[in-house]
Each structure stands twice: as C-alpha cells, then as structure tokens.
Predict the 3D structure of the following.
Amino acid sequence: MEITQQNEDKRGTFKATENGAEAGHITYTWAGADKFIIDHTDVDPAFKGKNVGKQLVLKAVEYARENKLKIMPLCPFAKSVFDRNAELQDVLF
C-alpha cells in the first residue's frame, strides 16, 4: 500500500493506492499555519479489512509530527482512531 499526499494552500489529501487502484483517501482543510482539520475519510469497500483508514490517519499523524502541526479530527472515523490510540494524543488540537 502506497500513501501519497497532495497539499494545497487551503486543502489537502492523503491517498492510499494498491496495484494502481485507489483504496481510500482522507481530505483535510488548513486552519491556520500550524493545524489542519481532517474532515473526511473514505475507503473503497473492496479494501475492507485492510486497515486502510487507520493507515491514512497514521500517515496524517506522521506528517503532523514531522512538521510540528496539530490535527483536529472532525471526521467521525478519524476521531475514533484518535480516541482508541493514546499514543496519537500529542498531535491533537
């Protein structure tokens, strides 16, 4: 599974692909220079059970840590990942 990021001035995406097919993606919106809001997570049903959504959230956390950013998980799925994993709390806004 490969996860790539596309970052623009106001929005961005983390996209997971496997064998050329999009497995899922997360969209986010910038909320200032030092934080972003995860507003949507979508996983293709064909990839159910492969933890695609969680891998996407973890990639967003990795990006936040590397760039000293904070995340606000408004997306219910992303919020559930943060709620179940205490080790991710350091990047919460």
